[in-house]
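Batch manifest, entry 17 of 40.
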Amino acid sequence: MRKFIQSFAVLALLAAPVTGAVAQTAPAAAAPASAADAKAAGTFIETLSGQAFTILRDKSVTKPQARAKFRTMLRENFAVKDIGERLIRRHRATVTPAQYNAYMAAFPDYVVGTYADRLYEYSNSSLKVVRTLPRGTRGDVDVMTRITLAAGGKPIDSTWTVRKLPNGKFQIHNLSVAGVNLALTQEADFTSFIQRKGFDALVAFMKDAAA
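Output type: structure tokens
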């Protein structure tokens, strides 16, 4: 089950348009989130997860079509550029502009191609917001959720870090599952790969995996 949550998390956190410019993250809010903001953040997560499960359950939609729908749905709801840079932050100062652009271009296809198909095994699961908690001074809200499996089993608790932007929209910046910070986990995986084989090899691997 952790593979599913991790798959959903990575797909959700990193999905973005395959071509064109990478979505830009709006400036962070300068004040703590209010109680109303926290409630709205919870609704945002419930709505987004509901849309995702609707796509997974639609038998008339092919997998390629579903992937396209995920990109369209997710690209405006996640801090793609911020998250992508976070995963290679230890190497950001040493990569060339060309390497960086190649990485950011390959990232979305790699994520969708690697993780999307696994989601269908859990299309009948459900997500419920348990509570929300404002955190920090940048407008962040921790949205605690519980995923219940249709086939039974222990529910999976997760925490989505959501930020309200000055334009009033919300963006997801991170996700923790059972206390495991998935962004940090993915960063460690990428760092290990780069140390062993190099940055160009990581980008090539991502392209091959997507293909």
